[in-house]
Each structure stands twice: as structure tokens, then as C-alpha cells.
């Protein structure tokens, strides 16, 4: 069953169309929402939450009719906004407690739950400091705790790893993975960082110019049209190509000229190629099946944009 | 590093009704305001006029006890305040006079002391209420929960209503009940039973337009000092304009009634006097024949306009 299913979503700001007849559906798991700046990602998220009124469109979110029951839907969604937002004057823990209360958790229980989630999000004693004194990384952790405190079924994260150092970013992504795999949460991750998407997402949605360009599982997108193997060797690429040609393989240097691409060969013939390199005394550094890179998928999606689109 | 890390756990409990979630905004706002030492001091000081009003009740009730004292009170009313009708009632119908005098005391308590406290306390607290949220984009946090912009504003306005309750309603009700307690007879309760209701009505009249104005100013800027400046300027400029216009108009008028008419003619330029006039109507002390709809219309327009503009602003911020 789809977690989000939207049909004919249109949102205009004056003459500018931010979302143009978007139909999309996402399944449980982690979905990466990609798109260049101004592609309508934030508008899509705000529309889902009912923060902006759409001009057209209907559907369901978590089984509830959308946008008719948007308040009930918000109770079941955790939202981490891209913007740096905080309630000035509150301590971190009070801030999370308030968000829990706004989602209907009784006051005392909200405080207990706030501490529990802050522990989970790795915000230590800083929770007793006023939020305006927090660093960017601390604020991201705080926003994460605020998004999780009411135990939502769907978590929408808008650029969540901004401001985190590499270790924190890695931990954060692992936390998301755990939430999805172990606790059955559905996650929608809007980001510019393709590495994050590749690392944890099951499904990718690409918006370009307010239109849905791609909505597919990452596994399916990564599968190339033609199978092949990439062989990375030390300096002897040209000789390897010659050797492969003598054995009736079709091989050529890959586009980045870092490896030799052997066309039409699947991974089950890897041992054959390995043995061939050993025979010819060619030092093989790396052998991997060909996959479409997310960068390429993203660029392809952008290049398909008609010139007139903004 | 926590001593015991439970990890992530599901939460399954009964949630509070969605229709009451705006109260969280109010409670959080009120608790934050309550942390301010100066504000607590001002709130405590704003209770001091209670003593004077209670003494007023005490002396008046003592004055009604015998003929000689009543005569003295009647003379004070006639000579010092020019209230001939009240002076006559004091001698002929003391029950009616009691109601009039108690109303006047409570009206004076509202108009002459608590309104000033209200201007100061709201001027110190209200500008931050929404402008801080706009600056730190906290409205996104509130509105991503099951709150509409209208409920958010209701929650914020309720913080101000809570303060007004503490400054005006509770002290006025205390004044009334102290007045009853120190009166020589319980009979006063039967003569003045409607006054607590009038106190509540006067608070509503005070709270709605002032909170709408304060919320409006606060929502129009991300700099709370500008909102604070606009708030105080509204009251001070209104007062000064009213004083100048009435003084200029009163020069050359012959009778006291003509002068009074000039004073009422210009009250619409001053929020203080407009509010005072509506409260006078609420306490039934409206002694002039001037049209009393004007101040009511002004207060209603400020209330509706203020909240409408603030709502528009908050809803508009989400589109950015």
C-alpha cells in the first residue's frame, strides 16, 4: 500500500507554476526527493503538510484523504524543515517537549519522551541550554528530535544533513536507516547530497521545474540498459583491451578513462576475466558490475527539461 | 553520553484533543514571560491600586451607616464631583446610590490604573510574541503540527488575555469581594450582584481590541523593538492629540456641558479614551447623550482588522 499517493497536484504562486500536475506515489521505506533549486521540492513538502493551499490535486497520505484531513495527517508526520527555525527563549528539551505537546502528548509524558528522543538524537547536556545558543549541528539534532518525538509514521526531512560534520552525518544516516528498517518508519528525504540518497534510499523521486521527471526504485534505476563489467588496472588499460579483443570480448576505455568496460558480460563471468588478467600478468585493482550512477540519472533528468521551463 | 540509552521506542498513548492544542502555545508563551523578573515586579506593582479601591468601598459603606455620615458623603458627591443626582440618591435611595458608587469605583479602578498597567505590560511582552517567531521561523514548527494560523494566533492572543486577566479581571474581582467582606452588611451583594459580570464584560472589552492591536504590530515586523515603539506611540500620540484638540476646542465654550461635549467629540482619536468610553458604557455610568456607537464600532474594527491582518501575514509567510 502506498504511503503517499497524489494525483494532479498543481500549485501556482501568481503566474509562476511551482507544481505542474504532479502525480506520484511512494511506498513504505526511504524515498529520496531530488531536484535542482526551485524545482518545487519544498512546495511539494509544504503542500503535503497543508502549509500551503494547492490549486488542484487530491490523493491520500497514510491512508487519510488529502488535503481534506490535513490536520489529522500532520499528527502522523514528523517534519524537519530546511530552514533554521527555533522557538527563541526555550531550552532544547523544552522545545522538544512543546512539540510533543502540540502533537497531543500530555505534558508530563511529553517531557519524558523529549529526554528519550534527545538521547536517541545524541543531544547531551546541551539540551538545557537555550536553543538560540546552539551551533548548526546541534540545531539539526534538535530538529530531528522534534520531528521524532511524537512517534510519527512518516518522517519528512528537508536537507537534514546540512551543518553536520562527516561523522555526525554518517551517524544521522544510520539513524534514519534504523528507523526505517527496525521501526518501520517511512521516510522522505529531500536533499541535494546524492551520496546520502545512494547510501540509504530505496526509492527516488526527481522533480524538475515543478514536474515529476523520475519516480522509481533506486535498484531499478541503477540497473544499466546493457550489462557489463568495469575492470580497473594499473597503467595497462590499452594492453588489457587488446587481450580481451583476442578472446572475443567487446571492451573499451570507460568515459572517465579510469577503467576498462567489458560489454555484455555479467558478474558470473568475473572469474574468467580474473584468470585472464592473471595469465597476462596484468594487475587488476578493481572489478565491479556496471551500474548507472545517481549523478548520471540526475543529470539525465535535468537535461530532458524543455528549454522554456524555468 | 547517557548512562542508559533506550534507543528509539514507539509511543502509544492517548493524545489530547486536537481542538485544544492551541493552549500549548499559550502555556509555553505564558511560562516564558513569567521568567522575566521585571515583568513579575510590574505585575506585582499593578496590584497595588487594589488597596485604594478597597479603602474607598470601606469608607463609603461606613458613610452609609448613619444619617449624619450619609449627609457628609452626599455633600462630597455634590460639591467635589458635581454629581447632584447621586447626592440626592444617597439621601433618598441608598441602595441605588450604592450600586452607582461601586460601579464608579470599579470603573475608576479599570480606567485610571489598570489601563496604564495594561499598556506597560503588553508593551513589554506583546511585541516579542510573534516577531520573534517570524525572525527565528518558529511559525514553521508550530504550523507543521495540527495547528492552523488562526489557532496559532488564538494561542498567542491568549497569552495577552492571561496577562490582562492577572492585571485587570482578578484584581477587580478581588476588589469587589473585599468590598463585600468589609461592608457592614451582606445586603450589599444583592444590590451589586451584577458588578462581577460587568467586570468580566469590561475585561473582554479591554482585551479584544488591545490584544488585536498588539498582535497586529508584532506580526508586522521581525524586530520586536519596532513593534514596541508602534505600540507605545499609538497610546501616547493618541493621548497627546486628544489633549491638544479638546483643550483647543474647549477654549471659548461657556457652559460645562459644552466643554464636556467637546471632550467627547474628540475621544475617537485616543485609544485610551475610546476604551474608557466603552468601559463606561459597560459599567452603566454613561451620563451623556453623545452617540455611544462610535467607540464600540472603533473597538470592533480594531479587533477584526488587527486579527485579520495578523492572520494574513502568518498565512503569507508560509508561501515564502
If you had to describe this structure to a student in words, what would you say it looks like?
The complex is a heterodimer of chains A (310) and B (320). The longest helix of chain A is centred in the middle third of the chain and has 16 residues, at 166-181. Chain A has helices at residues 41-49, 70-74, 92-102, 107-120, 136-148, 166-181, 194-200, 218-222, 237-246, 270-279, 294-303; strands at residues 4-13, 16-26, 30-34, 56-61, 64-66, 77-80, 154-158, 186-190, 203-208, 211-217, 228-233, 251-253, 260-263, 284-289. The radius of gyration of chain A is 24 Å and the shape is elongated. Chain A is of the alpha/beta class. Chain A contains 11 helices and 14 strands. Chain B has 320 residues and is mainly alpha-helical. Chain B has a domain at 31-39 and 116-317. Chain B is globular and about 80 Å long. In chain B, 41% of the residues are buried. Classes of the chains: A alpha/beta (310), B mainly alpha (320). The A-B interface holds A 13, 46, 49, 51-52, 71-72, 74-75, 77, 79, 81, 83-90, 94, 98-99, 101-106, 109, 113, 116-117, 119-120, 124, 132, 146, 148, 150-151, 178-179, 182-183 and B 1-2, 5-18, 21, 24-25, 28, 32, 35, 132-133, 135-148, 318-319.
The biggest beta sheet of chain A, please?
6 strands, mixed
Structural class from helices and strands of chain A? alpha/beta
What is the number of helical segments of chain A per DSSP (H or I, 4+ residues)?
A: 11
Order of strands, widest sheet of chain A: 6-7-8-3-9-10
Could you state the order of secondary-structure elements of chain A as H and E? EEEHEEHEHHHEHEHEEHEHEEHEH
- N-C termini distance of chain A: 34 Å
The helix fraction of chain A, in percent, is 25-40%
Could you give the distance between the termini of chain B? Answer: 39 Å
Topology summary:
The complex is a heterodimer of chains A (310) and B (320).
Chain A lengths: L3 E10 L2 E11 L3 E5 L6 H9 L6 E6 L2 E3 L3 H5 L2 E4 L11 H11 L4 H14 L15 H13 L5 E5 L7 H16 L4 E5 L3 H7 L2 E6 L2 E7 H5 L5 E6 L3 H10 L4 E3 L6 E4 L6 H10 L4 E6 L4 H10 L7
Helix pairs in contact in A: 3-4, 3-5, 4-5
Chain B lengths: L21 H13 L2 H9 L3 H15 L3 H15 L2 H9 L1 H42 L2 H6 L5 H33 L6 H4 L3 H25 L4 H27 L5 H10 L5 H12 L10 H25 L3
